[in-house]
Write a structure and sequence with these properties.
It is built from two helices and no strands. The protein has 59 residues and is mainly alpha-helical. The relative contact order is 0.17.
């Protein structure tokens, strides 16, 4: 199905963005100190990605 392939690609893209975001937030924390809003944003991004994974696998 064309829709399932696209969903898989978008899930992989979100996973890559989530991991990239983790690297950026960690580097920022090491270089300049912790910023709670950055970590909060990363957690939200991670939860959205997790939701996409669960939704894609259930359909």
């Amino acid at each position: 199905m064309p829709g399932s392939t696209n969903g898989s690609n978008s899930t992989k893209t979100m996973g890559a963005l989530t991991l990239g975001g983790l690297v950026v937030v960690t580097a920022y924390t090491v270089a300049l100190g912790s910023n709670g809003w950055l970590w909060f944003g990363w957690v939200v991004l991670g939860l959205v990605t997790l939701g996409m994974v669960v939704t894609t696998r259930s359909t």
